[in-house]
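haha ok so turns out i had the wrong file open the whole time. this is the CORRECT one, sorry everyone. sequence first:
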Amino acid sequence: MSGGLFSKIVRGEIPADILYQDDLVTAFRDVHPQAPVHVLVVPNREIPTMADVAAEDEAVLGRLLLVASRIAADEGVAARGYRLIVNCREDGGQEVPHVHLHLLGGRPLGPMLARK
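then structure:
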């Protein structure tokens, strides 16, 4: 495992409000939330971007979605709805080079992209 920010959270080297952790993924609250519920779900193994995923990552990617769905229910946002976001590279808005899924909810989130 590498020394990136999310890897350090997964290993417990950096404190975080961890909501879920198993052998494949870890979920924790975002320290700069953009909605009342803002949780990050990350693979425990560092994968830099979605462009870097491979066939052997299929189980972990499925687990990311399954865990996000469970957390949405636990956080009380499943009934009214929530958004899942995965950013990839610079133009996609990725800020941390470790694949991660944003779970956002708890208020109306508006359109997917700002209209131009």
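The domain at 5-82+91-105 is CATH 3.30.428.10 (HIT family, subunit A).
again sry for the mixup
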